[in-house]
Amino acid sequence: MLKFFLWLKYLRRRRIVFLSIAAVALSVSLLTVVASLFSGFIDAFERSAVEMLGDVVISPPPGAIFEKYPQFVERLEATDFVEAASGTLASEGLLHVGRGNVRPVGIWGIEPERRARVNGFKDALLRQGALPEAPTFEVPGQPGKTGGFVGIGVVAQADPETDEYDQDAVLEAMLGERVVITTGTVDLSSSEQLPKRKMLPFYIADVAFSGVHDIDSGFVYVPIEVLQKALHSRKDTPATTMSAKLRPSVDPELAIAQITGLWRVFATEELGWSSHKAQLTSVDTARQLQYRSIREFRKQMWVLLLIFGVISSSVVVLVFCIFYMIVRLKRCDIAIIKSCGAAGLSVVWIFLGFGATVGVVGAGIGVTLGYVITKNIAMIESQISVIFGLKLWSSSVYMFNKIPNQVDWGWAFTFAGLAVAAAALGALVPAIVAALTRPVDVLRYD
C-alpha cells in the first residue's frame, strides 16, 4: 500500500514523469504501426498469390509444356484431396486497343468457369463478379463472338490524385469493344524455325480488377482453346501450368506429395515422358512460389524495425534521467522510509515498480494509438494528400490498391512487453542509488 501511495504521489507531483509515459507510448505506437503495415502487406501478397493461382501450382520443366491437361485435371478432381483444378496457357504479346494505343501484355488462356472454382478470379470481374452464374467469355449483345477479359489497368488510367479507377465508366466504355492481340509462335514447318506472327481479335466481355496492380495493368484473358489453336495447333490440349484448389482441412504438404505421385504416373503412361523428365515437374503451393519475394520483404521489415527500435531505445535513457532526478529530489523521503525500518530492497522495488508502472501505462496508450492509426491509415493518408498534396500510397508502386490496415497483435504485445522492460531497466540504476542512500547523511544536512 505504501508503494502504491508513493507511486501516485510522484506521478501527481512530478509532471515530468508524463514525458516518459509519452515517450513509451510514441515508441510502441510507431513500432506497432510499422510492423502491422509490413505484416499486412506480406499477408496481402501471399493471399493474392493464392487468389490468382490457386492453392497448388503444377509447372513443367523449363522448355516443356503440358499436353492432355484436361485428362489430368479429371484425375485430380476424382481424388479426395482436390476440390477443383484448371489449366492455363500463358504467352506474351501486344494489345491493340485503338489507334496509337498499343501496349505489351501477358496473355492467359483460361477456362473461366473452372478457374472461378479454383481461385477468387470471379470476384475480380466487374460485370460478372456479382452474378450467380459462373463467368463466361460470352459478349453481351454479340452472340457467337470471341470474348475476352482485360485488366482494368490495361485499358484505363487511375485518377492521379486519388489513385482510383472509375470502374463503372471503364466497364461502360470498354464492354463489347473489339481489340486485337499480336503474339507469335515458332513455325515448326520451316527448316529455320522462324517466329511466326499471330493475330487474335476478340471482344471485351468483362474487365478484371483484382486489386493487384501488376496483374490489373499487365494481363488479358482469352479462351484457352483459342490460344491453343493459335500457338500450339499441333499439340493435344496444351497448357503451361495447372492449378488446383484443395479440399478443406487437407494438409498442403501431403497433398503435394500425392499430386506429385499422380502426375509422374500420368506423365510416363499417358504422355510418354521419361521418369527423369517427369521428376523435373515442380508441384508447389502458391505461397511457396512467392517465398523469395516474401523473404526479402521480411528482411526489409526487420531492418526497419531495428532502426526504429534503436531510436526507441532512447526511452531507457529518458526514464533513467527522469528517475535519477526524482531520486535526487526525494532524498528526504527515502531517508525517512529507511529510518522507519524499510530495507534497501524495498526501496529498490518502490522505484523499480514505479518505472514498470510508467511502462505499462505508456505501452497501453501506445498500443491503443497504434491500433487507431493502423485502422484509419487510409483516411490519414488521404488527408495528408489533400492538405499537403503528397501522395504517400500509390498502387503502381506498392502493387495493391488498398493500404493494409490489420493490426498485428503479436507484434503489438511484443513491443508493449519490451517497453515495460525498458522502462523498468531505465529505473533500475536510480532505484539502486536510492537503496544505497544513508539516512543519517541526508537528515543531517537536509
Written overview of the protein:
It is elongated and about 95 Å long. It contains 19 helices and 9 strands. Helix 1 (2-13) crosses helix 15 (344-375) and helix 2 packs antiparallel against helix 13. The model has no long low-confidence stretch (mean pLDDT 81). The protein folds into 2 domains: 2-45 and 312-445, no CATH class; 61-280, no CATH class. It is an alpha+beta fold and 446 residues long. Strand 2 and strand 3 (101-110) form a beta hairpin. Helix content is 55%, strand content 17%. It has a 6-stranded mixed beta barrel, surrounded by 4 helices.
Concise synopsis of the structure shown:
By secondary structure, the protein is an alpha+beta fold. The chain folds into 2 domains: 2-45 and 312-445, no CATH class; 61-280, no CATH class.
